[in-house]
Amino acid sequence: MLVFFLVGSMMAAQAATKVFYGGFAFAGSASEVAKNYPIAVSLNEPSADGAHFFDTQAREFFRQNASRFTDVALSFDIARSEDTPLVMALALSDEKILREELGSFHKLVIQLGLELLVLDFRAMEVVSSRPICIELIDASKEAFSDADIRTRMHTMVDGDRSQLFTVLRDKLAGVSVRGKNQCTLQIKTVTIGEKALPFLPESYRTATAAYAQTVAQQFGSLLTSQAGLAMLPYSKDGLNSKMSLRFSDASMLQFKIPPPTFAVDVGVTGWPSLLPGVP
């Protein structure tokens, strides 16, 4: 039995797949990044020493928590041509800023959706994704300026115990590199029904495609946390299943999202009427 356990431990140790750390990125084409993530982009502007906020925070977090991975051996070395082509990246894929006036108070909601990605740089393909959703809600007697929002977003990300990294820390143990025969799951479509529109923030009632990204992100995050499933990123354009990433060094790369084994269609229908005879 002792030999069995030793062999089992050696096999478990050898099973960890080497993955190189690739950095932080914004999802989407270069021309859309500033429009889709205005606050995050301004927060990520290089400092006097050339450092980028999101890059610095993410790299420090992964260095401190690399031992939490169970199936992945995360390396911070520079990959050589003979090394594994697998790279891990943290990508921001959704930024929503909602401001409302409630009587004499101003309400602020910041929603950030991110993807913890494993990428195959040889095949230029997404291997897997772990969706992450965080949210901050605040209220004030004064209207929130962009500088106020930037400060609050900074607190959501700053430090190993921040909201982002507290959520992310719990997901590290479940990150694995799927084999060729491993099943994958993808949220393929998100449909927002007419009855759901009155419950959406006003700015998204005529832009349901933007809200669909948030729904896919939140539902995907729930699936991975509850079932530990291997996910593929949600693609707004099902006919063009690719994911563009712009890294902080200005490099722009595009990765193919492979066909999933199973696809999920999500429908947001709204609350049924409580009045008899009213649909």
Summarize, please:
This protein is an alpha/beta fold. 28% of the residues lie in helices and 33% in strands.
**Radius of gyration from CA coordinates:** 20 Å
Count of helical stretches? 7
Proportion of residues in β-strands: 25-35%
Mean pLDDT: 84
Helix content: 25-40%
Major sheet summary line: 7 strands, mixed
Could you tell me how far the N terminus lies from the C terminus, measured between alpha carbons in angstroms?
65 Å
Q: Helix- and strand-based class? A: alpha/beta
General shape: globular
Number of strands: 10
Low-confidence stretches: 1-13, 274-279
Order of helices and strands: HEHHHEEEEHHEHEEEE
Q: How would you describe this structure to a colleague?
A:
- It contains 7 helices and 10 strands.
- Helix 7 links the parallel strand 6 and strand 7.
- 28% of the residues lie in helices and 33% in strands.
- With 279 residues, the protein is an alpha/beta fold.
- The N terminus and C terminus are likely disordered.
- The longest helix has 20 residues.
- The N and C termini lie far apart (65 Å).
